[in-house]
Specification:
The protein has 18 helices and 20 strands. The protein is α+β, with helices and mostly antiparallel strands. The chain folds into four domains: 2-152, 2-Layer Sandwich (Methyltransferase, Cobalt-precorrin-4 Transmethylase, Domain 2); 165-229, no CATH class; 233-408, Heat Shock Protein 90 (2-Layer Sandwich); 421-483, Winged helix-like DNA-binding domain superfamily/Winged helix DNA-binding domain (Arc Repressor Mutant, subunit A), CATH 1.10.10.10. Strand 5 and strand 6 (104-111) form a beta hairpin. The N and C termini lie close together (9 Å).
Length: 507
């Protein structure tokens, strides 16, 4: 128990605010800004509000404590359940944790993202008092963002008026149905014309209000002519760049709004073209691990990339005022960006088993051709592959406008020429551990001599990649709070620790 408290105390003093963590001083009174943060977390991706701590940008945070923690808890419950103050309450039993750190009371609020049909969550009965989270700041949502939140709660039309077979690209339809015919030979799809085939698989459906067959939104996105797609999805845009390292200049590009020789630029064709290009570029010698050895199982990486590419295309919000799909491949990583907020939490994405579908028909059609993971487990495949090959999770950022995923194709430290193989190995050992390690423990795990381990630790400390806890023989080493991947790691750790409320609250 005391060990858990010590670790929590250390974490709370070191961690800084980010998109999911907010500190409030709150020594005597509940600050009004708490409810702005509450609204922002509800409308974005949830988060943790920690009361009784003052954040310091430079140096350790200060644990101030809460003078009357029971009164503050009562004030929170009263406000959260008052519709005149807050439009929707997400706080339930088990979401408020009272913890004593350094003999001072602090409170941790676990604010869940609100259900989509309850958004936007706003304050004081005024919808203009809607907040969203942008980085470490709470921002008032503009009209477009409020409209997006409201649209997320409204079912989208699946059947499109005034569209027909003429709006579909016959060549794309032919390639698409060939794959399905080969996957399902028992269905005898070959005996059907294109229109009947599309009706059979649900790409064209009967509008039971007027008994007329209509093109679905997913069918148009996947198989349509570009000009027809933009007649309905006016901001539809697909882009792929292959860049040299972190250079602004691109070596290759595939774009939906540029003249090309690839045929109609719908989702089906864009996926096939871009995926093939990525596989070709991965064959270049940058796909190496920290020992300068080619990744042992390139097929695992390719599968993770395929899943990320498919997810980016099928889960985009194409009806937004600012839609886009942009894939940028660099020498060592790939950025996947699409419009719209991820409809599940980051934890749900990593752990799998839960799925909320934005483009239902599109997802169904893509699964027919076998290029999408079973429902709710695509993120698991991506994250597990990244962890196994490169010792780190992909970076995920999501807000109302867009979702971004950065997937490494090499070890994150690969381009650090100032680090030795042993430096990188020790860094990864510390990254994988949930608690600091002594030099003796690092020597044992790394299977190296004290001389070389000591030399590597000094180098990592000098470069700010790791930090120390304690002094003398009791000195322990841990990943620095400013290094890549650690904020996400510590956030998850804090959530886990907070849920040990009964344990941590004991004297």
């Amino acid at each position: 128990m005391n060990n858990e408290k010590t670790k929590l105390s250390f974490d709370l003093k070191k961690i800084k605010e980010n998109e999911n963590i907010e500190f409030k001083k709150a020594d005597n009174n509940l600050p009004n800004s708490l409810w702005e943060t509450y609204s922002a977390f509800c409308n974005t991706s949830g988060g943790i509000i920690i009361l009784g701590i003052e954040e310091k940008k430079n140096g350790d945070n200060i644990i101030i404590g809460i003078n009357d923690i029971d009164k503050m808890e009562k004030d929170i419950w009263n406000t959260a359940n008052n519709l005149a103050k807050v439009s929707y309450n997400v706080i339930g039993n088990g979401d408020i944790y009272k913890v004593k750190i350094d003999d001072k009371n602090i409170m941790i609020l676990d604010i869940k993202e609100a259900p989509h049909n309850k958004k936007p969550v706003y304050l004081n009965r005024k919808i203009e008092n809607t907040y969203i989270r942008r980085g470490e700041a709470d921002k008032k949502a503009d009209n477009d963002e409020i409209g997006t939140l409201m649209a997320m709660a409204t079912p989208k039309p699946l059947l499109l008026d005034n569209f027909s077979m003429k709006d579909l690209d016959s060549e794309t339809v032919s390639k698409f149905r060939k794959i399905i015919e080969e996957r399902y030979p028992e269905k005898n799809y070959k005996n059907l014309n294109d229109e009947d085939f599309l009706k059979e698989i649900g790409a064209i459906r009967l509008d039971r209000k007027n008994n007329i067959y209509k093109i679905t939104d997913g069918c148009l996105l996947l198989l349509g002519k570009y000009i027809s797609i933009t007649d309905y999805f006016s901001k539809f845009h697909l882009d792929f760049f292959y860049r040299d390292k972190d250079n602004e200049r691109w070596k290759d590009r595939v774009s939906s709004d540029l003249p090309n020789s690839y045929g109609e630029m719908n989702i089906f064709n864009f996926y096939n073209i871009v995926f093939e290009k990525i596989k070709i570029f991965l064959k270049e010698p940058f796909a190496l691990n920290e020992e300068k050895v080619r990744v042992f199982n390139t097929s695992l990486l390719i599968e993770a990339i395929r899943e990320a590419l498919v997810n980016t295309l099928i889960h985009a919000d194409y009806l937004q005022n600012f839609p886009k799909v942009k894939i940028e491949m660099f020498e060592g990583w790939i950025n996947f960006e699409n419009s719209g907020k991820m409809l599940i939490t980051k934890d749900e994405y990593v752990q799998g088993g839960n799925s909320v579908i934005r483009n239902e028909i599109l997802v169904q059609l893509v699964r027919l051709i076998g290029i999408a993971e079973r429902q709710g487990f695509g993120g698991v495949k991506i994250c597990k592959t990244s962890e196994s090959l490169f010792k780190q999770q992909p970076e995920i950022i999501t807000d109302l406008r867009e979702t971004k995923l950065k997937l490494w194709t090499v070890d994150a430290l690969h381009f650090r020429e100032d680090l030795s193989v042993l430096d990188k190995k020790i860094y990864h050992i510390l990254l994988k551990n949930n608690q600091p390690l002594t030099r003796k423990e690092i020597i044992s795990i790394s299977e190296n001599t004290e001389h070389f381990v000591k030399k590597s630790l000094i180098n990592l400390l000098e470069k700010g990649l790791i930090t120390t806890i304690g002094n003398g023989r009791s000195t322990k080493y841990e990943i620095s709070f400013g290094t890549q991947g650690y904020l996400t790691k510590i956030q998850m750790k804090l959530q886990t620790l907070a849920k040990l409320n009964n344990l941590l609250s004991e004297d």
